[in-house]
Design goal:
Strands 1, 2, 3, 4, 5, 6, 7 and 8 form an 8-stranded mixed sheet that branches. The protein is built from 16 helices and 8 strands. It has 3 domains: 211 residues, Glycerol-3-phosphate (1)-acyltransferase (3-Layer(aba) Sandwich), CATH 3.40.1130.10; 59 residues; 116 residues, no CATH class. It starts with 8 loop residues before the first helix and ends with a helix. 33% of the residues are buried. By secondary structure, the chain is of the alpha/beta class. The chain is 60% helix and 11% strand.
Length: 427
């Protein structure tokens, strides 16, 4: 019987196409920490889960290496979906909520298949939180990844070590298409060594120890606010305002982490003052959102300068934006309709990616066929080049216009600016 990690010609042909369109889904995409991935070892990756299918796609597209993913079992209920998932190299794992019988009947076989994947030196990716959530935090990690690691070590740990690699996925925005993505690999956990050092402990204690270690190292790869923190929104607002959005993706992450640490330490040191400030921040957030002002506008040191130059760019770029909107009308209309059908907004980027990946190439072929049939080749070539870039321009300039409008509103909202300047100080 064919293994899920075996070569597949159709998969190999489609992957570069998918990777290309995935990279187009982000203005900036970067992978760091690959030197932390052990070579000639069995590697299981534990990543945070915030952005539905995009989390798997950004990891899949980071390089050409073969990868297998594990997703929650309830997705595999329909036979067609199960076959599609297997083709995409995704294995199911079942949770108690899926029914005790599903766990009992299926998970032992799945764990064996997963162990076989890493035995063949194929990278295995899991999301130990077991469900996605658009927060800079971590749920308590489920035990599936540790069951697989322990089983892999039992089967062949004496031949080669088994590692769990903490993985962080940091998005510039969870909901906006063509934002940014940073993938970061942390210090790996040598499961084989860990087990040898804790020979007197039973399996439950081993898994708890590994879980604590993985949670700590995953948290170090993202802008992490503890899940128990009741003032999450206010802390993240302060972080964005104080850390800002300048610099590279790694630099932003480091500033976010440093700012969050400062806020939490201050909250621990002076709880009453901190709580009073955070309550003011929560009120500020409500007023800011009501006025349609982005936190990126609030974070600017010179909002008037930003609003002024953006006004000039908005005027100059508007005609091309309108032309791009008309040219790509079917793509963004279909995207808006499909996004509106999802209650969970986190699926928005996945929908945007899917529609662009399918419709844009088809419409590009139609554009080339029509223009080269009806127009001189010089005009047809220019039209084709315009159409190729039109959708990215439409999305990016649309985001630019949104931020410009936000900057203008922020400049003219004296009350909110005064509230920020007088109150948002961390002692």
């Amino acid at each position: 019987m064919a293994k899920i990690q075996d070569d597949n010609i159709l998969y190999s042909l489609l992957k570069p196409f998918v990777d290309y369109h995935l990279r187009k889904s982000f203005r900036r995409y970067k992978v760091v920490g690959q030197e932390n991935i052990p070579q000639d070892a069995a590697c299981i990756f534990g990543a945070n889960h915030t952005n539905t299918l995009m989390d798997a796609l950004v990891l899949l597209s980071m390089n050409k290496e073969k990868k297998v993913f594990i997703a929650r079992g309830d997705i595999f209920k329909k036979p067609f979906i199960a076959k599609l998932m297997h083709f995409c190299r995704i294995l199911p794992i079942y949770r108690i909520r899926d029914g005790f019988k599903s766990v009992k009947d299926n998970n032992s076989e799945i764990i064996d298949k997963a162990a076989d994947v890493v035995r063949d030196n194929v990278k295995l990716f899991l999301y130990p939180e077991a469900a996605h959530r658009t927060k800079h935090s971590l749920r308590q990690l489920s035990k599936g990844i540790f069951h697989i690691a322990l089983e892999a070590n039992r089967q062949f740990g004496h031949e080669k070590p088994v590692y769990i690699v903490p993985t962080g996925i940091e998005y510039g925005d969870y909901f906006r298409y063509r934002s940014t993505a940073l993938i970061s690999f942390g210090e790996p956990i040598n499961v084989t060594e860990f087990i040898n050092q804790h020979k007197d402990e039973n399996e439950a204690l081993l898994m708890n120890g590994l879980r604590d270690l993985l949670a700590e190292r995953m948290a170090a790869r993202i802008s992490f606010i503890p899940d128990s923190e009741e003032n999450y929104d206010a802390i993240w607002e302060l972080t964005k305002i104080k850390a800002g959005c300048k610099g590279g993706l790694e630099e932003r992450l480091e500033r976010n982490q440093k700012t969050i640490k400062e806020i939490l330490e201050w909250k621990e040191r002076e709880p009453e003052k901190a709580q009073a400030l955070l309550e003011k921040v929560n009120k500020f957030i409500k007023k800011r959102k009501k006025k349609g002002i982005s936190v990126t506008s609030v974070a600017k040191d010179k909002p008037y300068v930003a609003a002024l130059w953006k006004s000039l760019v908005a005027v100059l770029g508007l005609p091309l934006y309108i032309a791009s909107a008309l040219a790509t009308l079917p793509i963004w209309v279909v995207t808006m309709i499909l996004k509106g059908s999802f209650k969970d907004k986190a699926w928005g980027n996945t929908v945007s990616f899917g529609v662009e990946t399918i419709l844009h190439p088809l419409m590009m072929v139609l554009c080339i066929a029509l223009t080269f049939s009806l127009l001189p080749w010089e005009i047809a070539l220019a039209s084709s080049i315009f159409y190729y870039y039109s959708y990215m321009y439409f999305v990016d300039f649309g985001e630019f216009l949104r931020r410009w409008a936000s900057d203008v509103r922020w400049c003219f909202n004296k009350k909110l600016r005064k509230m920020k300047s007088q109150n948002f100080r961390i002692s």
